[in-house]
User: What shape does this take?
Amino acid sequence: MAYRGDSSKFFYFLAGFGLGAAVALLLAPQTGEEMREYLSTKAEKGKDYLADQATRLRKSAEGLADKGKKMTDEWADKGKDLAAKVGIRA
Assistant: This one.
């Protein structure tokens, strides 16, 4: 399923982000101010990524809901047609 793949990617993204930030803090020859700017930029990118993923998930859910509604309507119509054929009032 696509959803499981997306959640795995999300987990790896967060793990990589955290590991990268930790390594950067320990090894980077930057000043505190530079480091704060770097982390702020990375956090902003992470926030943007999460917002994009939420939008994709919402659109996907809307598409699935629309598809489910269409299928339900089709089956209801088929059921009504079948009931009319056998003489049952629906």
